[in-house]
């Protein structure tokens, strides 16, 4: 059994001299919870006063900040220390709602959004956002990646080195297909549904520890994703919902992961029409070099279904078995990099 160890430190990118942060990257910085010029009592007031490209730096002296924040500018929001700089949504609505591109949030504990599945610790309408080095906990959902523009998919979001835990619903969710996400270095644990539930393609899910989520570790709907060098463990739930990885798509690469103590380690579903049955091997996923909870020398069978569509039949769908194999199972668990 692997031991999860994380090193939690202050936000990088600033040199702290006393209580005055010296910016290494931005010229215009507004402060919250401290003293002196450009200092505000509320985070929202500082955001309202900022312009695109600014940094809002939040001290932990006045934490917790009981606010529900709305960001409509391309800014960087930095907390002094993610363990002690807390934004608490008071069980109201989204703790942080982003409706623009190019926002960075780092160095906070974000908690207590509304208690229904409609609310999240961070809800994003936009692209090119970065969420790094936060603790996102005790919300209905952790992070939701969406897009407020009809028929435009979210792109290029980066979720890095966060602790996402103890949320009632998914830790990370994308219900509109996105592209080029990077989800790396996170601990995603003890969330009520899935650790990650994402419609995404051409994305990277690497070096995460995904543990003890109540139903699934990862569910991916999409193609050409790389799911590599994660530890996915302790998904034990009634029936067959305690699953480590579920892939619902084609041409994904699932390699060098540790799969430990799950009711069912992995399953895949592939959808297509009747004519695609004959070429299904061209659309299959690649499972290779994963560790399946014990040393195994024979190929590991991953169960699966082909869900076909035949219009005009009495039923539009039919199901056929579509298993695949990890032909090179690892003999021992990988040393997955922890959080930095």
Structure explained in plain terms:
With 340 residues, this protein is mainly β. It has one domain (14-326): Pectate Lyase C-like (3 Solenoid). Helices cover 2% and strands 43% of the residues. It contains one helix and 35 strands. The chain has one helix spanning 43-49, and strands spanning 14-17, 20-23, 29-32, 39-40, 55-58, 65-66, 69-71, 76-79, 86-88, 96-99, 104-106, 109-111, 120-125, 130-132, 135-137, 141-146, 158-160, 163-165, 172-179, 182-184, 187-189, 194-201, 204-206, 209-211, 216-221, 226-228, 231-233, 243-248, 253-255, 258-260, 264-273, 286-288, 300-309, 317-321, 324-326. The strands form four sheets. The chain has a twelve-stranded parallel β-sheet with strand order 4-3-5-8-11-14-17-20-23-26-29-32. Strands 7, 10, 13, 16, 19, 22, 25, 28, 31, 33, 34 and 35 form a twelve-stranded mixed β-sheet that branches. Strand 33 (300-309) and strand 34 (317-321) form a beta hairpin. The two termini are 21 Å apart.
Secondary-structure map with pairings?
Elements: E1 14-17, E2 20-23, E3 29-32, E4 39-40, H1 43-49, E5 55-58, E6 65-66, E7 69-71, E8 76-79, E9 86-88, E10 96-99, E11 104-106, E12 109-111, E13 120-125, E14 130-132, E15 135-137, E16 141-146, E17 158-160, E18 163-165, E19 172-179, E20 182-184, E21 187-189, E22 194-201, E23 204-206, E24 209-211, E25 216-221, E26 226-228, E27 231-233, E28 243-248, E29 253-255, E30 258-260, E31 264-273, E32 286-288, E33 300-309, E34 317-321, E35 324-326
Parallel strand pairs: 3-4, 3-5, 5-8, 6-9, 7-10, 8-11, 9-12, 10-13, 11-14, 12-15, 13-16, 14-17, 15-18, 16-19, 17-20, 18-21, 19-22, 20-23, 21-24, 22-25, 23-26, 24-27, 25-28, 26-29, 27-30, 28-31, 29-32, 31-33
Antiparallel strand pairs: 1-2, 33-34, 33-35
């Amino acid at each position: 059994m692997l031991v999860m160890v994380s090193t939690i430190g202050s936000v990088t990118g600033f040199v702290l001299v006393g209580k005055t942060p010296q910016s290494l990257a931005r010229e215009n910085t507004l402060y919250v919870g401290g003293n002196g010029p450009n200092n505000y009592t509320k985070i929202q007031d500082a955001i309202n006063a900022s312009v695109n490209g600014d940094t809002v730096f939040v001290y932990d002296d006045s934490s917790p900040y009981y606010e529900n924040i709305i960001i409509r500018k391309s800014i960087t929001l930095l907390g002094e220390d993610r363990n002690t700089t807390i934004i608490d949504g008071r069980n109201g609505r989204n703790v942080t709602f982003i409706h623009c591109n190019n926002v960075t949030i780092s160095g906070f504990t974000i908690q207590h959004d509304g208690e229904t599945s409609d609310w999240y610790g961070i809800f994003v309408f936009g692209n090119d956002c970065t969420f790094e080095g936060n603790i996102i906990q005790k919300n209905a959902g952790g992070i939701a990646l969406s897009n407020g523009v009809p028929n435009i998919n979210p792109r290029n979001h980066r979720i890095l080195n966060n602790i996402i835990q103890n949320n009632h619903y998914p830790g990370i969710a994308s219900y509109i297909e996105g592209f080029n996400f990077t989800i790396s270095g996170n601990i995603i644990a003890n969330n009520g549904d899935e650790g990650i539930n994402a419609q995404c393609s051409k994305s990277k899910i690497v070096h995460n520890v995904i543990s003890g989520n109540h139903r699934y570790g990862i569910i991916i709907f999409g193609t050409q994703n790389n799911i590599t060098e994660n530890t996915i463990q302790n998904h034990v739930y009634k029936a067959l919902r305690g699953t480590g990885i579920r892939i619902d798509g084609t041409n994904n690469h699932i390699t060098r992961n540790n799969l430990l103590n799950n009711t069912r380690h992995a399953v895949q579903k592939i959808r297509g029409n009747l004519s695609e049955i004959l070429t299904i091997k061209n659309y299959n996923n690649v499972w290779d070099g994963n560790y399946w909870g014990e040393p195994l020398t024979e190929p590991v069978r991953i169960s699966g279904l082909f869900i076909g569509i035949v219009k005009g039949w009495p039923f539009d769908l039919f199901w056929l078995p579509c298993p695949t194999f990890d032909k090179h199972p690892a003999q021992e668990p990988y040393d997955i990099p922890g959080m930095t």
